[in-house]
Design a protein that fits this description.
The protein contains seven helices and 15 strands. The protein is an alpha/beta fold. It has a single domain, classed as L-arginine/glycine Amidinotransferase, Chain A. It has a three-stranded mixed sheet, with helices on one face. Strands 3-4-5 form a three-stranded mixed sheet, with helices on both faces. Strand 7, helix 3 and strand 8 form a beta-alpha-beta unit. The structure holds arginine. Arginine (ARG) binds next to loops. This is Amidinotransferase. GO terms for molecular function: arginine deiminase activity; transferase activity. Keywords: Transferase. Pfam families: DDAH_eukar (PF19420).
Length: about 280
């Protein structure tokens, strides 16, 4: 009998892909010569947006900015833990203007601890909160030196992991947090040293196949019970079900053309614990 999983209500930030297209190439999945269909991207994204709400989660929206086609990948905008916000500082000039747009959203929405980052970091693309720790990627986007800044600003210990395969340029394309102490990942995306670290920290992790990793199955969002992931990652969905999770396949084929899927579109807002007796 698989374990009974319980979902925890989440609070997310998303950005409608109203201006989505692929007109530059900053990862191997992007091909500006290949046509994109913005209306279809919006339709597929709307389904994901509705799904989160059907599952009882709250989703906030940040206004998409014309000329920033990658802004739909909201996970990259910041990392939020205990109400503290570490804003992204993008590696590529094409995305640089997204950082102030995300920063402004947090400032307008009552976040009092909003930090502009000194070091290059791409938000939850490379920082995944797993229980009390932050798993932090480096190698392609987020600089190694940024990890200490994240630890300091967000107030949680960071475990640095090195990515080595350009197809998996952000940590969230190679690893997903399923629950506070449970993860799934594709070992081939990591350096030998980082593979050893992951084996030691998570001996029971779900190991994904290369095919499912390539289908962006690891770019998934879990609420502790439901796992939303690319519908083409079939084997991964079966393995999740065996472990008592409820996999929910999502079709984001248009956003795949920019090099992202479910997790890339979803930034988790982790609030500070409410004051005793205070309202949440
Ligand atoms: N969290 C993610 N992995 N986001 C995907 C970002 C995709 C975007 N085109 C980039 O290369 O920056």
């Amino acid at each position: 009998m698989p374990i009974q999983r319980t979902a925890r209500r989440r609070h997310y930030l998303m950005c409608r892909p109203s201006h989505f297209t692929v007109d530059y190439r900053i990862n191997p999945w992007m091909d500006p010569a290949k046509p994109t269909d913005t209306a279809l991207a919006v339709l597929q994204w709307e389904r994901l947006y509705a799904l989160f709400q059907e599952l009882g989660h709250t989703v906030e929206l940040v206004e998409p900015v014309p000329g920033l086609p990658d802004m739909v990948y909201a996970a990259n905008g910041a990392t939020v833990l205990n109400g503290r916000v570490l804003v992204a500082n993008f590696r590529h000039a094409e995305r640089a203007a997204e950082a102030p747009a995300y920063q402004a959203w947090f400032e307008r929405n009552g976040y009092t601890e909003v930090h502009a980052a000194r070091h290059v970091n791409e938000g939850e693309g490379d920082y995944l909160v797993a229980g009390d720790r932050i798993l932090a990627g480096t190698g392609f986007r987020t600089h190694r030196a940024a990890h200490a800044e994240a630890e300091h600003v967000l107030g949680a210990p960071v475990v640095s992991l090195t990515l080595v395969d350009p197809r998996f340029y952000h940590l969230d394309t190679a690893l997903a947090v399923l629950d506070d102490d449970e993860i799934m990942y594709f070992p081939g995306a990591f350096s030998a040293e980082s593979r050893a670290t992951l084996r030691e920290l998570y001996p029971d992790a779900l190991i994904a196949t290369e095919a499912d990793a390539e289908a962006f199955g690891l770019n998934a969002v879990s609420d502790g019970r439901h796992v939303l992931l690319s519908q083409t990652a079939r084997d991964l969905a079966d393995r999740l079900a065996e472990r008592g999770f409820e996999p929910i396949g999502v079709d984001l084929s248009e956003l795949f053309k920019g090099g992202g899927s479910v997790k890339c579109c979803t930034l988790e807002l982790r609030h500070a614990a409410p004051a005793p007796g205070g309202a949440q």
